[in-house]
Amino acid sequence: MLGLAVFASLCYLASAALNKPSFCRDLDCPKYTVLQSFPGFELRRYEMSQWVATKDLVTRYDALKNSNMFYKLFHYISGKNTLGMKMPMTAPVLRTVIPGVGRNNQQTMMEMHFMIPHNMQPFPPAPTDPTVYITTLPPLDVYVKSFGGFTNHRMNLMKVEELKNQINNRNLYHGDHFYTAGYDGPRSMNRHNEVWLVAKN
User: Signal peptide position in this chain (predicted)?
Assistant: First the structure.
């Protein structure tokens, strides 16, 4: 059974490498199929995948809390897990943004994710930080708008509004939350960013 599991993991890894988009550079990233392309955006179907995540409530966008979430996940892949195992960085750094929650609906829930490397997807080690956890993203259809340059929370909000206007039909997507995806380190100049809206089935 172990031999079959290893073989399946190697097959998955080879398949992922062959289908990896160029903006993932040399990093593992989630597998998807483009279902339809439109002027300025596309509809993608993502496969189920495992991620390590953490979250926090913010009253307004808080750069310090954002940095703290990043380093919690970075410490996990640097060995702060039950196996003491170091893992390579993956792409994108994915954030789920859920506005209008918490006290008087004035707060935003920010959940940050790093994808588990493909060869460890079936059996990731558990985090030792109690505020960090392994989560599964189910198969997902998302409308995606890509853009370059350095981004921030205000820019992401603007791009989400642009995407909504381009889709031009509120019945096609869930509007209560969105995703942001950043594929590059802070020193990279040729940057690729995305915002996602989850499509309704």
Answer: 1-16
For residue 142, the cross-strand partners are 44, 198
In tens, the pLDDT along 72-88 reads 999 999 999 999 999 99
Q: Which amino acid is located at 89 in the chain?
A: M
Taking the C-alpha atoms of residue 89 and residue 29, their distance in angstroms, rounded to an integer, is 10
What count of other Cβ atoms lies within 10 Å of the Cβ of residue 161?
11
Q: Which of 196, 57, 93 lies closest to 140, judged by CA?
A: 196
Length of the chain (residues): 201
Q: Which CATH class is domain 2-198?
A: alpha beta
Distance CA 167, CA 200 (A): 12
Taking Cα atoms as reference points, which of 69, 53, 131, 57 lies closest to residue 101? Answer: 57
Contact, 27 vs 87, CB < 8 A? Answer: no
Residue 93 near residue 115 (C-beta atoms within 8 A): no
Residue 100 pLDDT level (bands cut at 50, 70, 90): confident
pTM: 0.88
Distance between first and last Cα of the chain: 36
